[in-house]
């Protein structure tokens, strides 16, 4: 249910329901229904709302308290690209990175 998050975000922007409805090209009553958890937006509208308020869809859905995850550049150790190489050739940091990466992969794969 997105009601609480949507109302909070709209008020933070000092926006009234009519303004949000106009941006979304819908009736004010539809926005009111979203905020009061009477109706839920379809996926297209959910993504538009996330874009408007610059938050993640998970935040809107109440699945996360993190508003937006910024893109993070991951710098991979050069030797990790060559998995055929001997593990002994990896530095301690590279070996740790490889262990962590494989651990995350296993957790995701096993779900």
Automatic annotation (TrEMBL):
Domain of life: Bacteria
Matching InterPro entries: Cro/C1-type_HTH (IPR001387), Lambda_DNA-bd_dom_sf (IPR010982)
Signal peptide: none
Keyword Membrane carried by entry: no
A single GO molecular function term of this UniProt record: DNA binding
Entries under Pfam families matching the protein: HTH_3
SMART domains: HTH_XRE
Coiled-coil segments on the chain, per record: none
Protein name, UniProt field: Helix-turn-helix transcriptional regulator
């Amino acid at each position: 249910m997105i009601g609480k998050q949507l109302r909070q975000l709209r008020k933070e922007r000092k926006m009234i329901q009519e303004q949000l409805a106009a941006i979304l090209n819908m009736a004010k009553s539809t926005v009111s229904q979203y905020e009061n958890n009477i109706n839920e937006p379809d996926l297209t509208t959910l993504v538009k709302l996330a874009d408007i308020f610059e938050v993640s869809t998970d935040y809107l859905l109440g699945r996360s308290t993190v508003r937006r995850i910024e893109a993070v550049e991951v710098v991979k150790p050069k030797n990790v690209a060559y998995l055929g190489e001997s593990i002994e050739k990896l530095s301690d940091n590279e070996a740790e990175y490889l262990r962590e990466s494989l651990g995350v992969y296993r957790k995701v794969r096993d779900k």
